[in-house]
Amino acid sequence: MSVESTRETMMRYFNSEHSDVSMMADDVVFTIMATGQEHHGRDGVLGMLNYFYHIAFDATAEIRTMLFGEANAMVEGVFVGKHIGEFAGIPATGRDVRVPVTIVYDLENDESKQGRIYFEMPALLQQLGASMSEPAATEGD
To answer: Which residues, 6 or more positions from 40, have their beta carbon under 8 angstroms from its beta carbon?
Structure first.
């Protein structure tokens, strides 16, 4: 793959606001690095994204930095939204959140094969008013 091909693939995904997973490989795996939780396949990744952006939170991503390589991409930004549904055992609080996030993507044949999500869980739990000593489960646990 070329850097331009990586850029085109990832921009199509970013511009869809996480709703178009057609550029992901059938066997794509997204891992939430803070918990080790993995989401497999297009449907699994789409379900995880839908949960974070539309069920537990009404949220968007503010992208600050994008980097593209021949077989990798990286985005750094802020997850911004309102807590509208249960998350990590915490019922909806209605609180606004702003959480730093970085995602590294590995691509092959113009498709995303793997995503590693570095999400600042302690910052999120603090903003939701949860104790830092409480375990942080996510949807599907």
So the answer is: 27, 28, 29
The pTM (predicted TM-score) of the whole model is 0.85
Cα separation of 86 and 27, whole Å? 28
Task: Quote the tokens at residue 84.
Answer: 């509208």
Task: Report the candidate in 53, 94, 61, 63 with the shortest Cα–Cα distance to residue 79.
Answer: 61
One-letter amino acid for residue 135 of the chain: P
First to last CA, the chain: 36
Are the beta carbons of 68 and 7 closer than 8 angstroms? yes
pLDDT value at position 136? 47
**In the chain, what are the domains?**
3-127 (3.10.450.50)
Q: What is the dihedral of CA 123, 119, 88, 92, to 10 degrees?
A: 60
